[in-house]
Amino acid sequence: MKEKPLEHQIYVSQIFSITLAILLTLGVSLHYNLVTKRNSLDMNIKNAGIFISGMPEVADILKKGQPSAAFNKRMDLLVKELDYIDVVTICNKDSIRFYHNNKALIGKTFVGGDEAAILNGAAPYITNGKGTLGNQRRAFFSIKNEQGEIIGFVMVSVLTASISQLTRNILLVFLLLALMLLSIGFIVSELLYSRLKKILLGYKPEEFRKIHIERKEVLDALEEGIFAINTEGELILINESAKKILDLDTMPEYGTKLTELYPETKLPNVLKTGLPEYNISLMINGKHIMSNRIPIMENGKTAGAVSIFRNKTEYTRLAEELTGARYMVETLRALNHEFKNKLHIILGFIEMGQPKKVTDFIINTSMASTLAVSEVTKQIQVSSIAALLIGKIIRAGELGIRLTIKPDSSCVESELHLPVDLYITILGNLIENAIEELNDISCDIKEIEVGINIWQSGSILSVDDTGKGIPADLQDHIFEKGFSTKGDGRGSGMFLIKELVDQHHGIIEMESEENTGTSFTITFTEEDHHVSGNNYRG
């Protein structure tokens, strides 16, 4: 008989071991649980019987020879407090019921016949008897007068139906638990089995060790993506970086057609031409890739081809963040626009024959611009954020708005604990909203004050303006997507801010007063107990 593959033996052995372990564990637990629950029920009825038989009131009603309505009421309250007790009855020596939690049975004769022993002086005992309400697990206790004579008994019981129901419930829970654990065991085994097949790529362990281990460890450590095909276009090699760049969910198996994974590939062309191709620019799943395609030569013939590629998108984005190039360009555009405006003013003064005003204007303008740039760069030492603020200061100045940075602001590159794009998006949107607000109204004072305080474990951003404020009835809606007081097609900026604050567990605080202004303060810390940006304080 042919021996089963190693991975199959491991799979079967694992399933058997898991199943056996679960059944043995649950079997022992179930037996222990049922015995414990039965003993617990016996203890409940014993304790209840001891307590009730020792009550002076119980002996009193038996000596008087008639039930008491008040006593019955007190007993009813007591029985309700007892757990897992179905029946409590108090009988005299003639087995006439003086109390029963089923009032219709009071005054009638006790049913079952297993009370004889307790009336004859036996010690308290438990029986399995049958009463008016059906089969029961009963505990009997005698009631004695002052002279020690037996004048009646107390019977406390739990119905066998209740015990059976409790047992069924326990069995059902354990059965469901067993099924769940078995299912998990099968799933885990199946996952491990599938994982083993993928790791071995269909080879025997000895062959896999010889062919793949050493080269795969080396190739997977590379940042460059690498895959290779044979002359049939079948995959013979792929590393982890290639899998990520191609957005594959799982590592493809040996022999998979490359065109099934990456239909746009041009690597098979190298098989036909036998010529290498270098620094090929292409797009894969929206990522900018630089690729080299090289034929694999064996004895002067093309035996396959390999592609080596790198994701250029990430490097481009990182470079832009590090240099702040995008925001520097925006700032230069704003400076260029401002410079043209100032040239026109100077030209006007010259045409008017007022050279003194030209001189004063140039000196004042240069001082103001230099001072603004100097203050920002001194306090904000992250180039992209500083560039954004300088650009906004210039844009606001052109519109007659004074934009300043709070004197205690501080931002150092080494202390950034969140992505710089997060700060730029939040500040850019808040400042732009304030500029638009102030530009659309007529008032004597148009000012915006920006605060940036960033330290290693937290940051506080604030933007205050002297605009007309946000009406109280609209304040609860400003972070809703598409909501805007500025017309259709707006309302995405504040929604974006809210999403970013939520993602990074920050707090948005907003204060706004009509005809006075609006203030936004956003706080981020590394502590986990902060509420999200949904819970802003307006």
Automatic annotation (TrEMBL):
Membrane topology designation: Multi-pass membrane protein
Listed PROSITE patterns: HIS_KIN, PAS
The protein's enzyme class: transferase
Annotated Pfam families: HATPase_c, sCache_3_2, SPOB_a
Domain Histidine kinase as annotated: residue spans: 334-528
GO molecular function, one term: kinase activity
UniProt-annotated location(s): Cell membrane
PAS domain segment(s): 216-264
Keyword Membrane (UniProt): yes
Keywords: ATP-binding, Cell membrane, Kinase, Membrane, Nucleotide-binding, Phosphoprotein, Transferase, Transmembrane, Transmembrane helix, Two-component regulatory system
Membrane-spanning ranges: 12-35, 170-193
Cited Gene3D superfamilies: 1.10.287.130, Histidine kinase-like ATPase, C-terminal domain, PAS domain
E.C. no: 2.7.13.3
Keyword field contains Transmembrane helix: yes
Principal location: membrane
Catalytic activity of the protein: ATP + protein L-histidine = ADP + protein N-phospho-L-histidine
PANTHER family from the UniProt entry: SENSOR HISTIDINE KINASE
Name of the protein in its database record: histidine kinase
